[in-house]
């Protein structure tokens, strides 16, 4: 199963305008932000296969994370895959 997981942008990478460091449930990874306009540190985005697909607000992120946590193993598998990925 592939999920879009909320993550908070914690750093815009100075040497790569298309990448940002995103924190997803404690896992920090570079994701491509090229599909979005005007993101900044502190923004929440939905991350899917290494891309920030859309910008969401913090309340929506919290509700989505609560729902995903309830999925159990599928969510755990996605976090593991994210932790093992590296697009930078």
Please give a handful of descriptors for the protein shown:
single chain, 88 residues, alpha+beta, SH3 type barrels, five-stranded antiparallel β-sheet, 2 helices, 5 strands
What are the SSEs and their pairings?
Layout: E1 5-12, E2 19-24, E3 27-32, E4 44-48, E5 51-56, H1 58-69, H2 73-84
Antiparallel strand pairs: 1-2, 1-4, 2-3, 4-5
What's the short version?
The protein is of the alpha+beta class and 88 residues long. The chain has two helices and five strands, in the order βββββαα.
Please explain how this structure is put together:
The structure is a single chain. The protein has 88 residues and is α+β, with helices and mostly antiparallel strands. It is 27% helix and 35% strand. The protein is built from two helices and five strands; from the N terminus they run βββββαα. It has helices at 58-69, 73-84; strands at residues 5-12, 19-24, 27-32, 44-48, 51-56. The model has no long low-confidence stretch (mean pLDDT 87).
Please give the share of residues in helix.
25-40%
Strand order of the largest sheet: 3-2-1-4-5
The CATH class name reads Mainly Beta
Instruction: Please give the oligomerization state of what you see.
Output: single chain
Average pLDDT, to the nearest integer?
Answer: 87
Proper CATH architecture = Roll
Instruction: State the secondary-structure class.
Output: alpha+beta
Q: What is the domain tally?
A: 1
Number of strands: 5
Determine the number of helices (DSSP H or I, runs of at least 4 residues): 2
- The gyration radius over C-alpha positions equals 12 Å
């Amino acid at each position: 199963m592939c999920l879009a997981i909320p993550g908070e942008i914690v750093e815009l990478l100075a040497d790569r305008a298309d990448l940002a460091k995103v924190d997803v449930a404690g896992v920090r990874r570079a994701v491509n932000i090229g599909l979005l306009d005007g993101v900044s540190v502190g923004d929440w985005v939905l991350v899917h296969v290494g891309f920030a697909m859309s910008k969401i607000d913090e309340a929506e992120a919290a509700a989505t994370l609560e729902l995903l946590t309830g999925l159990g193993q599928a969510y755990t598998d996605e976090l593991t895959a994210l932790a093992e990925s590296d697009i930078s």
